[in-house]
């Protein structure tokens, strides 16, 4: 795996469409805490985060899909970055680290 250019969103920032939309200033980015873990999401992904099944996030099957997101701040001057991307699972390392941490917290 190698580093690739990414937009700020941990969830979709690796996607070519998101990179294009980032360059055209089509999204805002915000820093949130979810399950006491920090994550940067674009305005599309923060609206869509509640669609993740509870089991995917390490919660018991059938848990309410009402995930507490706390807005920390708007990213005022978002920048492109670099991150490792997994072509098999279609996620970047920042998101996978976030996911690993919340799964560990939610499984205890």
Keywords:
single chain; 108 residues; alpha+beta; three-stranded antiparallel β-sheet; 26% helix
Structural description of this entry:
This protein has helices spanning 16-23, 43-48, 93-106; strands at residues 3-6, 29-34, 37-42, 69-74, 81-86, 91-92. It has one domain (3-106). The protein is globular, with a radius of gyration of 14 Å. It is α+β, with helices and mostly antiparallel strands.
Question: Could you provide a short overview of the structure?
Answer:
The chain has 3 helices and 6 strands.
N- to C-terminal distance: 31 Å
The H/E string reads EHEEHEEEH
Enumerate the strands of the largest sheet in spatial order, edge to edge or round the barrel: 1-5-6
- SS element count, helices: 3
Biggest sheet descriptor: 3 strands, antiparallel
